[in-house]
Each structure stands twice: as structure tokens, then as C-alpha cells.
Amino acid sequence: RCHGGEGTWVPIAEACYGYSQVRGTVDSYFNADDFAAVPARPGKLRCDGREVFFVAQESGVLRGIPGIEPIRALPSFLRLELMCKPGDFQALTTDCFTRPGSVQLLHKDDNVVKSDYDTLRAMEQPGGGLFDFKMICPKDPRTMGVVVVVDPFSTGAQLAAEVVARGYRLVMVLAEKDSPVAELVVGDNEFGDAPTVQHDNTVEDQDAALEQTVAQLMAMDDPVVAVLPGAETGVLLADRLAVRLGTRNNGMELSLHRRNKYFMGETVRASGVRAVKQLRAEEWGPIADFLREWNPSPFRVIVKPIESAGTDDVFLCKSTEEVQEAFLSVNGKINGLGQRNIGVLVQEYLDGEEFVIDHVSRDGVHKCVAIWQYDKKPTNGAPFVYNGMRPRCADEPILHEMIEYARKILDALDIRHGPSHMEVKLTSTGPCLVEVGSRCHGGEGTWVPIAEACYGYSQVRGTVDSYFNADDFAAVPARPGKLRCDGREVFFVAQESGVLRGIPGIEPIRALPSFLRLELMCKPGDFQALTTDCFTRPGSVQLLHKDDNVVKSDYDTLRAMEQPGGGLFDFKMICPKDPRTMGVVVVVDPFSTGAQLAAEVVARGYRLVMVLAEKDSPVAELVVGDNEFGDAPTVQHDNTVEDQDAALEQTVAQLMAMDDPVVAVLPGAETGVLLADRLAVRLGTRNNGMELSLHRRNKYFMGETVRASGVRAVKQLRAEEWGPIADFLREWNPSPFRVIVKPIESAGTDDVFLCKSTEEVQEAFLSVNGKINGLGQRNIGVLVQEYLDGEEFVIDHVSRDGVHKCVAIWQYDKKPTNGAPFVYNGMRPRCADEPILHEMIEYARKILDALDIRHGPSHMEVKLTSTGPCLVEVGSRCHGGEG
């Protein structure tokens, strides 16, 4: 084979010898004259060159590569190839796999090349200027041990990044299969190349599933030194893994109580600490009895999921009827974390201001690393909507009391290690727990820079310190002191809902004196719902300034911008619901013109779902992904299994699981016609029935069905072997001999042969039969047909309830080209102003009726022969040709 080394030597060879092994190799196969012209051995060099393989003389984590520009400035510099980048660990070079890169030098003067070569060798030496090491160390510091972060999304992403920054090897574990929040894992961060382990929470034997996950973690080259929960969904599994692997942990005895809000409250109460009055129930009867016995006055009762996050489905009810309505709404629903609510929690309403008490703990020593005061209020009909929060220092006795109360709860729930995020109401009778999570404060971690600036540290850093750096943990004060500056996290509240045309408020926000950072969860073209919880929040802004009056003024400005006409959003359409939720429209194989059909569906306000009819189809990649429907869900039908009825039911189940009903199924391309028929019939949308479905796709059945209806059809034979074809030709004896051979199912002029002898027919049969056609399907047999003379036209219809509208007539310019008998050279539109075109349209409609094409598009090719119109073929889908 050729000289390897990535071929970086090729330009040197070309310049020095006037040729290269690469060109010479191709000449040796295909160009005898050029090969003969190559000398038997290299002659005098035309210039001098060097390939310099860099040798790393030190190992460590790269901070930068300052030698790049000096190298590029060398007189003989030709090209630079680097195999490393800042942030990488560069090992000592001991072989070609630890080589950091190479440089190619070229110059007429060999003294110049030699001088530059010596320069490069000097630059490689310690302190020579090639590399700038952030850390010089013999081994990759990320091999100090494996740190597992379970569900590293929201603030868990920043926790994972901190782990990597400390030099540990990160492994990400996903706690739930097919979780809708798993996609929130940040993949383009500095830990994007970290391995991911998927825990299987779907199997009945969770002990066995745990062992499988543990086995994958223990198979890593380095030992697991810590297991951290990244988000609320990862808390339970993080506990189990930490205990099983023997790392710092909070034990399993109260693990469920740290996640389940009912058990949480009852455990706190049992420890003698103030807890909320509550009932857990999966049926209405016990709730009715509880309310009757309690008889709250005034009647203010909370109904919420037992396990969730934020204010997801939290209801404030003012009557028994409202409690029952909330129970029916929450129970059994899939919550914002992708989990099904099993029962509800009915609790007393706690009055007063709400605070967040964030702690980090090590060996039962608790450090309060932040106190946040929520701005949470009724908004858009929802009782509890986060509008923002601000950091507080523990300079008031009541805040000291809240911190001590929080620590009693941590002790009650056995939270001895790691982070905790607690929400506490300061009621008229003192602090009372809302809920606590044994993980970091969430909210995507947008609050972290505020905490760092105001407190000088954050819960994220403190969490890693609590596991690995006892001295730094000890240096953190027991509670927050005086703030270094003032800050606010402003959660945007959408006061109107609709489709966004733009977000003109971005630049004015960035110009605010205390502006720190902007996080948007929406973009132009999106539907923005009214904000009623953290999942409908359009974004947030972080403010920071030495002067708290500046922060307060900017906060008020942002609140004013949120109001209708305030300048934050520009709505293309203001509407109460996403117009794309008028119903689901399924487009099967939305490529070619099907892509434009899908785009039209979206433009009309329907929700698009794309179904792919064939697994591993080479045309599936033609589905347009960067169009306005690029975020539409895709369902892959499995056409490879023997039981296609079961496969159909699986596809139907996925479609029926959509939040909105399927209102139409449209074929996007020829490959989707059969499945579109089956889905439309099964789902009960407009359809053309199944009786003639195959006849609308199979060209042989198509022709015979047309003939049986009394309409002119082409003479033809379908065959999978040569014998019947020979008999057919002998009996027919066409004169002049012009016979068409083509696949039974395909599109366009794919493998359509015009044969002028029996021998050519046999050759075409052998070429077509068994071949993979242009749609990625294997040709089973061929179609042998009479050749139709005359001009070819396209008659495109759209039908509804059997009423056919001819929407276009195209005249093909199709002719023999480059040895092929039928090549599209173009087409032009025609109007139906001639009697013969009227006749063709009426002929086409008889074919539509014969094939039961009563609804939707049809694309028909018709030859205008000397004896009148005759069908070439018809597809019950739009005209293709990429639209």
C-alpha cells in the first residue's frame, strides 16, 4: 500500500521529485505512458524538504500552543498538522500515537530548511515555546479516579464540568430510559466526550438492573471515587450506586423519603420538627374524608404531585370541588420530569415568604452556602409562578432560625454528604418545610455566577469540595455573610401567548447597567405559551451590580418589558394555543415533493409527524431536516419483521401516543404510499381503502385493474423467470419490435429499457430482476409492456370525496439521450384548451375511479398515442421531482 503517515509527506514529494507515490499508483493502473515516464529511481531534488514529527519532551494539560504562529513564520514553512489542542492532556512522545503533530518544510535552499529544522527541535524542549502547559504531570490528571454524575442536566451539567475541571474522569449515568429530560444533557461542554451509561429502569428486577449498571462502572480503567446526583431524577439511583460502590453516601434507609414528598414530610414530623399537614392518596374517597375532618378555614389547600420539580402541576384550591378537579388533573399524568404521577399530595397552604436554603454537607457537618428569597406569585391563572429570586445574607435572627431549622431537616433525612436544596416558607408560626432535594439547586444553574459574585463561592464548587477537598470545605463559612455585591435572577414571565416573530428586547436587556447574562428558552418561530410554571418560562436574566438600587431599577425595567407591548416579544400571531396543535398530520416518507408537503402542513398550523416506511432506506436521508419542520418527531416503521400487522400496530401506538389526535395521513413519496394507506385506514382518517392499495403501487396490478374497468390499458406481462416472457413475445410477435422492460415498483425512468429484439428483452430482464432499485427496494420480477408511441403528458389531480380536480397538465420533453431510451430533458405546463387535452383529463379520471383514488393527490403519466390516451403509470401521491 502507499506510504502512510496521513499522507502529509505528499506535497513534499511532489515539490522535491515532481511526482508522488499517490499519483504514480493511479498511473500504474491506468496510464502506462505516464508510468513509463517516471524515472526508475529519484534524480536530483528540485528543492529541499523535511517532515518534522513533533516530540513532546514534557507531559501535562495544555493551556495553549504559542508556537503555532512562530512556526508558520518560518521561511521554509509549508504546512502544520496538530493532533492536540488546548485542554488536552499531552503525553511524553514515545511512539507515533503520542506524537503531538508534524510540520512540513520546503525551500530551494537546504540551509534554510536545516536552520528551520533546528529551530523546531529547540522549540520542543522544556520552555522552548512550542507548548504552554496548564499543568505538568506524568499522567492524565483525569485518571485520578472516576466521578459518576447521575442525570447531569440542569445544574448537574455545571457540576459535571466542575468535576472535569478538578481533573477527575467523568462518567455520566442516565437514570431513566427514554426520559424526555435526557436530551438536556449538555453534549458540547468540556465533558462532551465523557462516557455515558444508561441504567435500565424499565425492567421488573431492579436489583439485577443495578448490578448491570455497577458492572459497567466497575469495568472502567479507573476506580469510582464518588457518585453525585446531577438532577432530581437521579437522586434515588445515585444513592443506590454510591452505597453499592462504597463511595460517600447518605445510606438507603431514608433514600425514598428524600425523594417522595409525602414520606419526606412524615419523616420530618416524626423527628419532632414542624412539618406540613398532609395526605397522600390515589383515590378521591380518602381525600374527601380528610377534608371533611380537617375543615380548613379559610379554605386554602395545596394539591401537587408526590414526585416532581418546580411548580409543575401545583394547585391552590379554595373549595372541595377545586381539590377534586386538581386531583383528577394530576393523578396519572406524565409530569414535567417525564414520570407518571401515582397519586397526589394534599397539603395545608403555607402563608408567608418563601426562601431557598442551599447547603453542602460533609460527614454530617452542614454549610449553608446560599440563601435565596423567591419572588413567587400568582401569574396567568397559576397560583405559584417563579418571577425571580435574590441572594440574602444571614444577618437577621429569623434567617439564623431558618438555617438551624433546615439543618434539623437534613439530620432527620440522613443527608450527611453532598448538596441539598431546600424550600422553606417563613410562616406566622415560624419556618416550615415545603420540600427538599438531596441535590444541587436546579434552574439550569443560571444562578451560579450570581452566587460566586455575591458570596465568593457556590454550591457547585462546594459540592465537589465536600467530596474531595476537606480543607477548602472547612474554609467555607457556616452561613453566608455580608454580600459582596447585589444580584437578581429574573425569570421571564410571558404575559401573552403566541407564535414569536422576534425578540426585540434582547439588545435593550444587554444594555442594562447590571446585565450579567441572558438565557432564552425560545426563539423566533416558536410558540410561547403563557407562563404558568418553570416549563413554560421563556428564559431568564442574571443581574449583578455593586449598587443595589441599580439592580432594583433594572429589575423593574425587565418586569415592565414583559407586559403586552412592553418590547420584550414581537408576536407574529397571538393565540391561546399552539396553532400547530390543531391536530397531528402524518406524512409518510417526507422526501422529494413530500418535504414541501410537510412544510405546507406546518405552515397551515398542524403538528407534523414524519413516518419512515422502510428501515435503513437509502432515501430516508433525503428527509429535509433543516426546514421549518426540522423539529417534527419521526416514527420509524419496521418493515423488516415478518409480522407486518404487529409492526403496523407498533407504529399506530406511537402515533396515538402523541398529545394530539392524528387528523390525516399523507404519502410524501412513492415509497410511503402503501403504509400511508394502511395507517389512514387503521387510524380512521380520510383514506382510499385497502382493497386496491397494492394496485395503486404495483404497476402490473395497476394496468390489469384499469383494463378490467373497461378503460384502455397497456398490453403487458409480469414475470420473474425468462420462460413466460419468451412465450409471451412469441405469441405477441410485435411489429415493429419495440418492447418496454421495467421494474414492477420504482419511480421515474429508473431501469426502464426500450428493447428492439428478443435478445435485448432477455438482457434487460437479467439486468432488472433482483436488482436494488432507486428507491432502495429489490426488484422481484419485471414488467414487459408494449411500447406506447406519441407525446407523454403528466396529469396531476387532487381529489376529495371522489371529486377530482386537475391541478396541472405537464408535457414531458423525454427523449433518447446518451444511449438511454427515456431521459427527462424537461417539461412545460399546458392549459386544457384543446379537445384532446380534455379527453386526456376525462381518461385520467376514469383511471382514478378504477383505482379507488377518492382522496388526496395523484400523479399520472399518460401517452397520447395514435389511438388515444393510454396510461403509463399513476402514483397516489404528489408529483415528485424534488418539487
UniProtKB/TrEMBL annotation:
Cited InterPro entries: ATP-dep_AA_Ligase, ATP-grasp
One Pfam family it belongs to: ATP-grasp_4
SUPFAM superfamilies linked to this entry: Glutathione synthetase ATP-binding domain-like
PANTHER family per the UniProt record, alphabetical: ATP-GRASP ENZYME FSQD, FUMIPYRROLE BIOSYNTHESIS PROTEIN C
Origin: domain of life: Eukaryota
Keyword annotations from UniProtKB, A to Z: ATP-binding, Ligase, Nucleotide-binding
Protein name, entry field: ATP-grasp domain-containing protein
UniProt GO molecular function: ATP binding; ligase activity; metal ion binding
Domain ATP-grasp: 265-468
Leader sequence segment: none
Coiled coil: none
NCBIfam families for the chain: PRK07206.1
